[in-house]
From TrEMBL:
One of its GO terms (molecular function) is oxidoreductase activity, acting on paired donors, with incorporation or reduction of molecular oxygen. This is Cytochrome P450. InterPro entries: Cyt_P450 (IPR001128), Cyt_P450_sf (IPR036396). Coiled coil: none annotated. It holds the Pfam family p450.
Length: 112
């Protein structure tokens, strides 16, 4: 994986005019700056760590969440009720989630 990240970073460093609007572009911009605060090794390590942690943590956490919710149907019921109440109180169902709505999710926040 380190070789893949290293090759990707070096390719992007050699072609800084091609923009992808992603994290690698941000790292390349920093590495090409007058006084970079990171080096290539750090950039490669950061990319590898982010890729690894996003893969390793997401799947097990989702599995555990589904297991706990299926083991506790009363929790799932309360979560549904609380979130559906927000939707029922909206004038426009397509509106975005508001800070006020988020703060009203007292049970959901405890479960998260």
């Amino acid at each position: 994986m380190l070789k893949i990240m290293s090759d990707l970073l070096r390719r992007r460093l050699s072609e800084p005019y091609k923009k992808h609007d992603d994290l690698v572009d941000i790292l390349v911009k920093e590495l090409k700056s007058e006084k970079p605060t990171i080096n290539e090794e750090f950039a490669i390590d950061a990319l590898s760590a982010l890729l690894f942690t996003s893969f390793v943590t997401l799947s097990p956490n989702l599995s555990l969440a589904f297991k706990f919710l299926s083991d506790n149907p009363n929790v799932l019921k309360t979560l549904k009720e609380e979130n559906e109440a927000i939707l029922m109180n909206r004038e426009d169902l397509s509106s975005r989630f508001t800070w006020q709505e988020y703060k009203s999710l007292t049970f959901t926040i405890m479960v998260s």
